[in-house]
Amino acid sequence: MNGTAPVKHVTSSQLALRLAATILVAAGLPVAAALAQTTVPAPQPVESAPLPPPTAAQPAPVQAPPAASAEPAPSPSVAPPAAAPPPAAPPPPAAAPAPVQTPPPPQPTPPITAQPPATPLPAAPAIDRDATLAGKPGDTMGVDTLVLSPKPALTISGQTTWDKGIETLAGIFQRLENDAGRLGLRVAGRPLTYFAETDDIGFRYEAILPVDRLPDNAAQLGDVRAGSTPSGNALRFTHKSPYDDIDSTYEGITAYLDAKGLTVRDQFVEEYVGDLKDPGDAGFEVNIYVQPR
Predict the structure, then answer these.
(1) Which residues of 168-200 are buried (b: 16+ CB within 10 A; e: fewer)?
(2) Is there a single domain that holds both residue 266 and residue 149?
(3) What pLDDT band is residue 21 in, cutting at 50, 70 and 90?
(4) Which end of the chain has the smaller Cβ count within 10 Å, N or C?
């Protein structure tokens, strides 16, 4: 015998067993348990025969490429010609160009006329707190016949005695002036007293202070009233002497009216041109207005 080891023939059962064991090992299962459950038939005796000596390897024959087929390649199928598209619609006729607008000739620019300066508004008349109802006396005899125009005023009514008359009136006029300032008004004339009723003891009066306008809110006046100064036909007499001597002026007024045969109202008005705080001044001036009936 040659030195070649005898080849053991493996039966198909043994080969299947080995393959199953390999699969179980790969799956992580115990091979012994699987083999115990598998019944393998006893191997059959195999006659062994010596293998022939190996022969030199013969080169594999080179496969010649298959000869090209003599049959011609099938000709490609020809598609039927596509239907011709319908003729395109003719393009619309081009629009006629718009006529060129000729710009109008430039108009001559009119000459600029210088505007006259605006006429300034007349200035508001100055407020004269020393103005009287009818200006300065014009009659050398101290009597003027005139027509009084009403002016806005603040008024307060009251009653007092003759011996305290000037003192009372001076305090009332000061109060009216304070109220005018509180209401945003300006004093526009000298203070006046309307003597509504008189007797031997005293008199009832209406103190009047001319102002530039009436107040906007009458509710703020309190016991002060918005009114006006006396108006209408009147005679004005002038007293220039201490106030204590005014009785002599009234006696002259009575004599003048009797001489002229004039009948006047019982009420009369005093307008204090001088300062009531100094009624003893020798030049203290008072205008006295009486109105015919």
Answers:
(1) bbbebbeebbebbeebebebbbbbbbbbeeeee
(2) yes
(3) low
(4) N
Q: Count of CB atoms within 10 A of residue 230's CB?
A: 21
Tokens of 53: 């000596």
Please choose, from the candidates 274, 115, 109, the residue with its C-alpha nearest in 3D space to the C-alpha of residue 191: 274
What residue numbers bound the domain in which 37 lies? 12-44
Task: Please tell me the number of Cα atoms within 13 Å of 119 on its side-chain side.
Answer: 2
In the numeric block, which tokens belong to residue 221?
Answer: 């006046």
pTM: 0.58
- E-strand ranges in 167-240 read 192-198, 202-210, 225-228, 232-240
- Tell whether 233 is covered by a domain: yes
Under DSSP, the state recorded for 212 is S
Is residue 23 in a domain?
yes
Q: How confident is the model at residue 23 (pLDDT cuts 50, 70, 90)?
A: low
Residue 174 resides in a domain: yes
For 9, 24, 52, the CA distances from 3, given in Å and listed in that order, are 18, 38, 12
CATH code for the domain of 184: 3.20.80.10
Residue 147 maps to a domain: yes
DSSP 145: E
